[in-house]
Amino acid sequence: MKRFEHFNAKTIDEAILLLEKYDGEAKVIAGGTDLIRVLKDDILPKYPKAIINLKTIANLEYIKEENGVLKIGSLTRLSDVASSSLIKTKYNLLSEACRSVGTPQIRNMGTIGGNLCQDVQCWYYRASKSLGKVFHCLRKGGNVCYAVSGDNRFHSIFGGKGCVAVCPSDVAIALTALDALVKTKGPLGERVFPVSELYKDAALNLGRSEIVTEIQVPEPPPEARQIWIKFRLRNSLDFAIVSVAVMLTLEEGVCKDVRIALGGVAPTPKRLKEVEDFLKGNYINSETAEKAGKMAVAKAFPLSHNAYKIPITESLVKRVILMAKDHRTLT
Amino acid sequence: MSFKIIKSEKAEQKYKEWKVLGKPIPCVNSYLKVTGKAAFTDDIIRPNMLYGKILRSPFAHAKIVKIDASEAEALPGVSSVITYKDVETMGVSQKPPAYILTDRVFYVGDVVAAVAAEDEAIAEEALDLIKVEYEPLPFWLTPEEASSAQPMHPEVTKDNIVVGMWPPYYRSVGDIKEGFKGSDIIVDVEFRKPNIKHMFLENFTAVAEWRGDELHVWSHPQVGAVSFAMMLASIFNVPTNKVHVYQCFIGGGFGGKMGDAPLRVAALAAMLAKKSGRPVKIRTNIREHFVEGAVLDPGISTFKYKIGADKLGNLKAIDATVWAGQGERSINLGIVYCGDTIFNTYRIPNRSFKAYPYYTNTPMSQALRAYGSQAGVPPLEEAVNEIAEKLGMDPVDFIIKNGLRDGDIVTQYLHNDFQLAGGSLPELVQKAAEIFNWKEKWKGWSVPTEISGSKRRGIGLAVATHTAWGVPQPDRVKDTVIIKVNVNDGTVEWVTDGRDIGSGFDTVVSQVIAEVLGIDIKDIIHAPPQSVGQPIGGWTFASKALQSTVFAAYNAANNLKRNIITAAASILNVDPNRLVLDLKGTRIYVAGDPTRYVKLSKIGEIYGGILIGIGSCPSHYEGPESYMDPVTGRRLGMKGMFCSFAEVEVDIETGKIDVIKLMVATQPGMILNPLMVYGQLIGSAVHGMGCMLWEGIIYDEKTGTPLNASFIEYPIPTALDVTEDQFVCVTIVDPDDAKLTPYRAKGIAEGIFAAMWHSIHMAVYNAIGRKIREFPLRPEKILRALGKAPFPQTKGVV
Ligand SMILES: Cc1cc2nc3c(=O)[nH]c(=O)nc-3n(C[C@H](O)[C@H](O)[C@H](O)COP(=O)(O)OP(=O)(O)OC[C@H]3O[C@@H](n4cnc5c(N)ncnc54)[C@H](O)[C@@H]3O)c2cc1C
């Protein structure tokens, strides 16, 4: 790592002020599990001059329910989210997604805010200076996405505006299916918007000096069934090749409400609105589930190395729906 | 977990005779290691020390046209910068093709320059200030490309065949033409493998310090400290006795910490230290592990095997060729030992083996959990399986018919043939198959054993043989052990020129000494190796410690004991056979009459104040008469015998493979420490599993950059990926299987890897009925084989 100034912010406002002062040349740090890697690999187009520690801000680590809304402070650790009994009982999808992140060490250090704001895993973007070769890609202000013409087996099958790296956060996928919102604060004040909108083309949808402060999750109907499924190489630790989050409410076998979000396949969490519309009002059985799987990938256009994600996605969507129907959990 | 130790009567008898050997004694260093007290190289801090960082090449092949380090040198806090220009001025002697710094770079990440500064942050900033102008040259990654490319090292060779100790290599026994003529069935198999990395936890690190013309280096080489000192002495052109190498604890090696990469990092630190006039530490990171360190030899390879058998399933002939991308240099031992696999796994009367090692633009290739046998096993087993399948034979029966067994002649590369003394694949496979319940599970070739929804189960097995007592070594690395007894309290220290790389070396050698000297293992320590004043030998590699270091320790301890007893006998005037050595009690007494004794200190005085024992290991080929078979008059030798069984479940919708059960079996001779044997078997097997399922370097084909260069992107198995209850270890213990070592034990940690990976490969084939003639078997390959999604053939094979 190179040299930088380090500040322990006492309040959110102080952190914002410092970010403003450094005008895009500072980064905030929470658990540091991703940022330290980014700094060690020296992948940012400009090495940050300052690092602003958020962990010294009081009262950003909490899990509470207020007026039918679950509120999680952005500095809450993933392990605490995963093990919270409130979340396990009512928002199990989130609990499962958090538990599938990284390793116990990563979950003990990593925060939910940091997970949502982590940098993409694209191996061209991440190629480290200490390895010799750096790719000045589109995401870094260059003109080319090297993955498009390179090895893109872990990249988007639903395109992307230039950059085809996928949203790396498991938590974002689960939160998308839960219709969760993210609350931020910046120099212009506070914003609240859907988690899925945090991701946009080749960047995070955050202002330079904007900080994620809270995650808000509306309470799902008690009868809703929530399933998280994450396909990866190893069962122990790996980013998702494909992940699916589903929330399904049935009434006598008929789908009353459903929300499905896909991860690992697109630059943002991908809600399957068309599939949801098809399922709503239909019986959930192996035929409709299979059709849903097919619909999920109907618009996919794979790159040179990632067509294999299509059958995987198709199969997982089908399974997740049937698992939700049968109240089965992950096997 | 299940660890089955099946002992013969002879083995039971031996165990009864032993007090320390055969017992589950935990690693002697485990306490230091788990409490973080063990001193690894990175723990070394010298007064006034600087930190070094390495500038690496963005090109896979290029000439450095211009290099200007003046801005970097001017950065406050920077002490020195070295480039290839400094090599000459420092009197460092360089001989191609083993460069430390030169005006060419041969792969992405090759060393261009290095900086020493007050801290790592400054050093890293300085790297950005070094201006380099490159002239990019064409590069290639595969042997196919190499064969038609311009020569990479035109100064030493006109083509791209690696000039090393061994040029393109051909060996044959019998007459393959005749063999194929006599075959009823002939199959051709083509197989490919990727570049595989060692992935140990401790990255390459070195500290170097000059004290006048003395060079002091702290490092973690797998070669001995003395050998390492000799290499440094020749690089810096200084006398070997002025190079002090301190061999620190080693955080894993698997062959990747043999000479080259630790040597280059140490040499760079020493060059910076020389130029700065201050000690320098270089510690590389995980990314650099991929470009500083070697890959498995053979590297990216294509195997073409033709094999024939008669109707009854007797193998008749094999014609095997390997083409490998060996990286920027290689000593090619791995590729040629693929030949040993072909020659010494099955009884095939007519054999031919050809190897084409090519220069390619990747780091060098080197041993990884042994040389050769692993890479040679999957294509050989694939070919043999195809024959068995065509004949409709159960693979167990096929191995029983054709497998290598006790008394067979082993054909070795570089060394004389020998007659196998102990161990037999047919016997091993037969017993292991019973334990695995093979006959009940087996449903035939390419038939799943179970189907449930989209899941298909399959079983597979594979065998391997591997050196089990080291390669016969040239004299300079003959093992020596020196044991010293402290006369004041009877504690013992021993030293050899080698260090534990995690295989239990320190523990087992200490057990041997404890057994001979009749003391508790707690009263023994292995003195940290340090080149000056120490004997040479004792590298930790090639499954040899159990044979050669144990042999040397056994001799040293017995010599020591004999000297003490002889002296005591003459003082007490009794028959030496009546004396008991009581080191703990610091005395030697007459059996049955402890009042008649001599103090240890008295014996010490007789020997000039010091009690030491020295022992070395005879090389295989100058060994005692017992190395000869009295009937055939042939020289005897040993091999490790391994087999592995796997049961997997493949999801044909997603291409995911789940391992259900793994079983390994071997004939280790006697087990000197069951904890070590179990640990080594499971470690080796899981390593093999990881390579078959997931591992391999993925390259960006346009630039030759390794893309998955970290523990996140290069997936190795963790403890959660195969749990202990999925794993069965079987050892069939009989001293006659390892006749040539003092305690009748042989190495087991390398060969299991080889058997394991192919057993998984076969199990997957039987589950899905598709042949995938390469690995790793990632989901993209499975789905491609099932016709569910296209996936291109990549240059890296992964
Ligand atoms: C080995 C490994 C495996 C992993 N596996 C997975 C996985 O399977 N699934 C998965 O989803 N993730 C995975 N991750 C990523 C991991 O979840 C993230 O590193 C972690 O959640 C980040 O949290 P943090 O608090 O450490 O963030 P930091 O590293 O501190 O920050 C990450 C980024 O977010 C920014 N940031 C942090 N907090 C805020 C905030 N409140 N507002 C605005 N910006 C902020 C930082 O500036 C930085 O750019 C893995 C990481 C590792 C190292």
Task: Give a short synopsis of this structure.
Chain A contains twelve helices and 14 strands. Chain A is α+β, with helices and mostly antiparallel strands and 331 residues long. Chain B has a seven-stranded mixed sheet, with helices on both faces.
> How many extended strands of chain A?
14
Radius of gyration of chain B: 27 Å
For the biggest sheet of chain A, the summary is: 5 strands, antiparallel
What CATH architecture of the domain at 41-137 and 204-283 in chain B do you see? Answer: Alpha-Beta Complex
Please identify the top-level CATH class of the domain at 41-137 and 204-283 in chain B.
Alpha Beta
As a whole number of angstroms, the C-alpha radius of gyration of chain A is: 20 Å
Query: Strand order, biggest sheet of chain B?
Result: 4-6-2-13-10-11-12
> Total number of helical segments of chain B?
21
Distance between the termini of chain A: 41 Å
Kindly report the average pLDDT value of chain B.
Answer: 92
Query: Judging from the principal axes of the Cα atoms, what is the shape of chain B?
Result: globular
CA-based shape of chain A? globular
Alpha-beta classification of chain B: alpha+beta
**Ligand identities:** flavin-adenine dinucleotide
